[in-house]
Write a structure and sequence with these properties.
Chain lengths: ~230, ~375
């Protein structure tokens, strides 16, 4: 069953008098529980596609059905609610809130729910335990290494138990060892917790962890490769 | 959410402190102006059903003594008493020794100023002795006067000196300013001046405040064709008319206040705009987590209001402490300003300005943050 359906999606940007076509009639599907790597040269449209899947931006044409919802039809406020419930987003540069400690950063999305404080704390602690940071709850982002910050960001992305994790070059800012650890963690989330992952990456080693690798070129799907386990 | 707002506030401590300090100073200045204006316009001693009748030309022009009985005959007038502002000099001309000195009629003063309290024995003693005077308790306490004490007042407006003996001490519960004056026998002054038969002002007590318009009209009409035309007004209006003598102070103070409020608005708005701009990525991140535009807007506005109210509260507290201390000192050297106080209106102005400045300065950055598109914010950073 597809958790992501991209149907004839095009995305154009207007730059002064020029129309830049970033995605052209792109169609693809991601199955539930898959781990998909999106690769391609700069400007190929992979980050744009990820932004569209997360509802950060809207396609010029086409339809996007993500986690059972046609998100092209949602209003901005409905998109926000949908994102909160269905999507976990992981950035290249972690983007933690610097004035909140690890536990508070992870708890942040839960403040939008009606959960009592104790329950929120418990869920945030569990998420941090899953990413191996149970001993860093009170640490602020500046007190953590890059790898640890990205783990906190992953914990924040999974704390609401979303069906789909969207990762924008999650290892792009990390050293080799930390990158390896993060990729192991993502694999674990995919295999043990059944999370569907769509990851944009330039790194072939990262792409090796994915079951499906999609190559984009000039806004179109160039090729698709499926790794046999 | 509250924690995030509070921590954001403390994120750049120096900037927050400087903003709070500028707000605080502005609020101190504003509340001082308000408290001072309240002092000048204070009419706590005024009574709603008391009228003042004086010369229509100016206070310096006296009225004939014969007006008293005629005013008394106006319907709804319960009592009439004459008051002459003597001024004079007690001890020396230093401001701390300045207090109000009036000549009046012992028989009618307490009929008009019904809030004054004094024993019948003291009233009789004052009435019986032409050189007697009565003093408010606050003033008697200040100088340590006791019944039987004599004081000397050197005339200035009136070219006569007074030797007076204290025969009564009155109280005016709840109106301390009314206890900082003396009254002496008007016959004493008349005789010293060779009986010119003049009165500075007449104070009238009416049956009810509802009678004011009718009595004002009748009193002014009664002397409209005479040589000394009169102006009748409520006691509060009479007191406020002294303020007009020194120009439009109220307008001046308000103009200064608005100028202060506008400049402090720009300072706070700049701070809030800088703070919001620095957090563009964080706003985008909050939105990726599911926060809605309205929630983000609320956070920014709340932070701005918090800054505004915090600065204003500190300013008000500083002002209250300073005004209290200053009033104590002023009371010693310039008793007229001894009742300077941080009035409820001054608190309201201070906190209100803080709230308004916070609200308005946070509005634009909050609106921008709420409208921010996640892709634009992330692209800007990348």
């Amino acid at each position: 069953m597809s958790i992501v359906e991209v149907q004839d999606v095009s995305k154009n940007y207007q730059r002064d008098d020029f129309t830049v076509k970033v995605l052209s009639n792109l169609s693809l599907a991601v199955e539930e529980g898959d781990f998909v790597a999106l690769m391609g040269p700069s400007g190929s449209g992979k980050s744009t596609l990820l932004n569209l899947l997360a509802g950060f931006d809207r396609p010029t044409e086409g339809r996007l059905v993500v986690a059972g919802q046609d998100i092209t039809r949602l209003s901005e406020s409905d998109l926000a609610v949908w994102r909160h419930r269905r999507i976990g987003f992981i950035f290249q540069f972690y983007n933690l809130i610097p004035v909140l400690n690890a536990l508070e950063n992870v708890e942040l999305p839960l403040t939008l729910t009606k959960l009592p404080k104790a329950k929120r704390r418990q869920k945030a602690e569990t998420a941090l335990k899953v990413v191996g940071l149970a001993d860093r709850l009170k640490h602020f982002p500046r007190q953590l290494s890059g790898g640890q910050e990205q783990r906190v960001a992953i914990a924040r992305a999974i704390v609401t138990d979303p069906a789909l994790l969207l990762c924008d070059e999650p290892t792009g800012d990390l050293d080799a060892q930390s990158a390896e650890d993060i990729l192991n963690l993502l694999s674990e989330l995919n295999q043990q917790f059944g999370k569907t992952i769509v990851m944009v990456t330039h790194d072939p080693r990262a792409a090796e962890r994915a079951r499906v690798v999609l190559h984009l070129e000039k806004g179109q799907l160039a090729r698709s490769a499926e790794r046999v386990a | 959410m509250g924690k995030l707002i509070w921590r954001n506030l403390l994120r750049n401590k120096r900037r927050t402190l400087l903003t709070l300090a500028s707000l605080m100073f502005a609020v101190v200045l504003l509340t001082f102006l308000t408290a001072f204006l309240d002092l000048l316009t204070n009419t706590e001693a005024a009574v709603d059903n008391r009228l003042v009748v004086r010369s229509a030309i100016s206070l310096a022009n006296p009225l004939p003594e014969s007006y008293g009985p005629r005013l008394q005959r106006i319907d709804r007038v319960k009592a009439v008493t004459p008051l002459n502002w003597f001024q004079g000099v007690y001890l020396n001309d230093r401001p701390e020794n300045f207090f109000a000195r009036f000549s009046s009629d012992p028989a009618t003063l307490f009929q008009v100023f019904t809030e004054y309290r004094m024993s019948d024995a003291e009233k009789q003693a004052w009435a019986a002795e032409r050189g007697a005077f009565i003093a408010g308790k606050a003033l008697a306490d200040k100088y340590g006067w006791k019944i039987g004490d004599q004081i000397f007042i050197k005339g200035d407006i009136y070219p006569v000196d007074l030797n007076l003996t204290l025969r009564g001490i009155y109280t005016a519960p709840g109106v301390e300013s009314s206890e900082k004056q003396i009254f002496f026998h008007r016959r004493y002054l008349e005789e010293a001046m060779n009986n010119p038969g003049i009165v500075g002002t007449y104070f009238l007590l009416l049956d009810s405040p509802d009678d004011v318009p009718a009595v004002v009209e009748k009193a002014e009409a009664m002397f409209a064709n005479s040589e000394s035309q009169v102006r009748a007004e409520t006691e509060a209006a009479f007191q406020l008319s002294f303020l007009e003598m020194i120009g439009n102070v109220q307008f001046l103070f308000q103009a200064i206040g608005i100028a202060i409020a506008v400049s402090i608005f720009f300072i706070t708005a700049n701070t809030m705009a800088m703070a919001a701009r620095e957090r563009t990525t964080e706003v985008a991140v909050l939105k990726t987590l599911g926060f809605q535009g309205g929630q983000v807007m609320g956070m920014v506005i709340f932070e701005a209001v918090l800054v505004g109210l915090l600065g204003a509260a500190i300013g008000c507290a500083v002002s209250a402490a300073a005004i209290t201390g200053m009033a104590r000192q002023l009371d010693k050297v310039f008793p007229l300003f001894g009742t300077l106080a941080m009035t409820p209106r001054a608190w309201g102005v201070g906190l209100g300005i803080g709230l308004l400045v916070g609200l308005v300065s946070g509005l634009f950055p909050a609106f921008s943050a709420s409208r921010l598109r996640i892709v634009d914010a992330l692209r800007r950073v990348a």
